[in-house]
Every structure is written in C-alpha cells, then in structure tokens.
Protein: DoxX family protein
Amino acid sequence: MSISTTGADRRLFIPALRGLYSNLHDGAETLLRVVAGGALVIHGAPKIIDPFGATGMVESLGFYPGVLWAPLLAITEFFGGILLILGLFTRPAALAATFVLLVTVWFHWITQGQGYSGAEKSILWAAILLFFFVRGGNRHSVDARIGKEF
Structure:
C-alpha cells in the first residue's frame, strides 16, 4: 500500500479546509519570499552605505582580500534582498544569500564557538532561502510575469 502526499490526494481531518489551504498556498509562499527579501535588505543596508566596513570581519573568516568580499557581501544582501522581494532572478539571488547565511552559520557555530544556539537564526534563514533556490519565485513574481527563470 502506498501513501500519497500530494495536495489533492491528502486526507484532511477537516476536508472543508481544503479550499482555504489551496487559496492561501501561493500567497503564504509569496509573503515568506517578500519577508525574507526584506530582512536581507534591512540587514544589508548599512553594508551598502559603507561597503568596505566589513573588510576586517570577512578577512577574519578567511575571505581574502576583504576589499573584494566585503562589497560582494553588501551587494548580495541588499540587492539580493530586493531581487527576492520582486521575485526577479529568484533562484540565483536565493542561492547567493544561502551561501552567505551558511557562512554566518560557520561564523557563529565554529568561529565564535556559540554552537547551535548562536547559529540557530542563520540556520533558519538559510533553510528559507534554500527553499526559494529550489522552488523559484512562484506565480506572484517578476520571473513568472516575464515567463523565464533560472
């Protein structure tokens, strides 16, 4: 006996909720993408204002030369966040941001020695961004409007 887990085949405890879940699916996914993108923009805004301000920090993580990596970090967070909000080039933006978040996991867990409790937020954000790398922008995205995506 096989158990199907597709949305149409799932048996709900309250079948009357099927329509509600179906109607909210894309909106909830879009909201998560916009919130994740907005958080990246807010976090990256100070780095855009001073793109070389994080040079010492990125070099302390082993990313040399810092004058290259610090502005790339700023661009990834700020402009990657804007791209995620719009749903434009969603997969590449999410992949780049996932990489940044995995570095912050390393930084908090290993470099700072904070373990899971220090890296927990970065792990959650990395998982969210990985989801959008895999999934793309959905029908409420610029990618969908132009009919092309990575």
